Task: inverse folding
């Protein structure tokens, strides 16, 4: 939300054996259920006119801008502390409202894959390629991180790609 703090609520599902169910396999009913739970979780928080609903590989996530009242109550250190990390891109954005469709919030066009669970090749963390439009947009935040190298902005390593192809 272009630097404006957000609330983040995430949800994942497991099967009867306790294994994570990939978000790509949820289907419409479960996705709708996830959205309802996330909306319910953030009831009374933030500005519901400024939201983004998206998924990663094991979670559906709701970003909601904090309200002006919440912003005014942030402690001083919030505004002066060093940026320590930056999230990578989403896997899929379902919808957004009240906020611009900024390239930095879109999925990487060619993500590397970090395996989460070798038993299921649908469970992987996207690793930004570093060169597509959305990755380049996220990289503009790097100088604000005090020159520290941000691991999730680095191009995928050869071994990371090989790991994903196994
Ligand atoms: Zn990329």
Result:
């Amino acid at each position: 939300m272009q630097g404006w703090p957000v609330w983040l609520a995430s949800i994942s599902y497991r099967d009867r054996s306790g294994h994570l169910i990939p978000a790509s396999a949820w289907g419409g009913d479960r996705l709708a259920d996830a959205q309802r739970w996330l909306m319910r979780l953030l009831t009374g928080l933030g500005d519901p006119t400024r939201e983004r609903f998206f998924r990663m590989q094991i979670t559906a996530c709701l970003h909601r801008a904090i309200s002006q009242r919440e912003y005014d109550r942030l402690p001083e250190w919030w505004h002066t502390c060093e940026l320590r990390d930056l999230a990578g891109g989403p896997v899929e954005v379902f919808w957004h409202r009240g906020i611009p469709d900024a390239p930095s919030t879109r999925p990487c066009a060619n993500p590397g894959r970090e395996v989460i669970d070798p038993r299921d090749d649908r469970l992987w963390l996207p690793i930004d390629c570093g060169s597509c439009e959305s990755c380049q947009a996220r990289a503009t935040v790097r100088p604000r991180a005090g020159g520290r190298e941000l691991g999730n902005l680095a191009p995928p390593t050869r071994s990371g790609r090989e790991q994903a192809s196994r």
User: Anything to note?
Assistant: Residues 46 and 69 are 9 Å apart (CA to CA). Confidence is low (pLDDT under 50) at residues 146-166. The longest strand covers residues 6-11. Strands lie at 6-11, 51-55, 60-65, 92-97, 112-115, 124-127.
